[in-house]
Amino acid sequence: MRVDVLNDFEHEDGERLLEIRDDERAQSLDLGAHDVSGVSPLDIRAFTPTSHSTATRREMPEITTPRELFTHELGDILYVERKLASETLPKLIAEVRDEEFKAGLEKHLRETKQHVANVEQVFSLLGEEAKAEKCLGFEGLKDEHDKMLEETSTALIDMVDLGAAARTENYEIAAYEGLRRMAKALGEEKAVELLDDNLKQEKEALREVEKIATRVSNDSAKEPASA
Ligand SMILES: [Fe+2]
Ligand SMILES: [Fe+2]
Hints:
Elements: E1 4-10, E2 16-22, E3 25-32, H1 44-47, H2 66-95, H3 99-125, H4 136-151, H5 157-185, H6 189-222
Antiparallel strand pairs: 1-2, 2-3
The structure holds fe (ii) ion (FE2) (2 copies).
One fe (ii) ion binds near residues 108, 169, 172 and 202.
């Protein structure tokens, strides 16, 4: 049977990987220590012994340098900040009842719009186009929150939203701490300053949320349950 070779990889450890196509299927055959010298790649299937025929697919990684990892993670937080500014925070502001919480969310929405601008500026400092990467962690938090709202009485909505806000701020804090560490290591001092501005406001927002959550939790524990 004729076999077309799509890729021929030589790994650092000397292991060879051929990616082949036979008829309609694409698969990779790890040839390990087998001597393939003198064997035409087109005959590789006939050569490959059945004892070594476990098919594995190895793709070349697209992120290979600390700088690429940094810009990828920057795209991740850009996705989060844009979503928060355009959808999530306006939705929370519309649904919460506690006035102090509502005012805090409105303030953080204004800050979040600046966070978007700061992250875009970091991209521009690096000479890169600001490209958002879908953040699966944030999407998970959002899905969990949506499910929680369906399952919970509307009387408890502020507590549910305070929990979601605290989780999101913690996520952002971890993201910015990682980003500022990478920017520092790469010698991008101006980027460190911009990331620190965002990080400081996330930490302050978390402190506010925790303070309000303590009051709301204590108050609601004293009240009889209602629908
Ligand atoms: Fe933010
Ligand atoms: Fe935030």
